[in-house]
Amino acid sequence: MTDERSQVRSIAGSPRRLRGNRKGIIGWFDSRHLNLERYLYSMHRLCGVTLVGYLFIHVYTTATRLRGPAPWNAFLLSMRTR
Q: For residue 15, what is the DSSP state?
């Protein structure tokens, strides 16, 4: 059994150690390594997360509409700006 972090992979002839995702989401926006490709990757991921959030909100509002006119009207009143 080998630990995934201790495996060695050869990339372009030079061995590199595989590291886990230590920084997580904060690592997407690390300004020390922010070149054009990294910036575009970060924006791509942010747009994807936003679209998934929108999808859940859209499904929730559609499901509210299927419950009938009373819950739908109550939902519309709660979303109204004052």
A: E
pLDDT in tens, the chain (82 residues): 554 444 555 455 555 565 666 777 777 666 676 688 878 888 899 999 999 999 999 998 888 888 889 988 988 888 888 7
Per the confidence metrics, is the pTM higher than 0.85?
no
Dump the DSSP string for 12-77.
TTEEEE-----SGGGGGG-GGG--HHHHHHHHHHHHHHHHHHHHHHHHHHHHHHHT-HHHHHHHHH
Instruction: Give the Cα separation of 43 and 38 in Å (integer).
Output: 9
Other CB atoms within 10 Å distance of the CB of residue 33: 7
Which residues on neighbouring strands pair with residue 17, listed in sequence order? 8
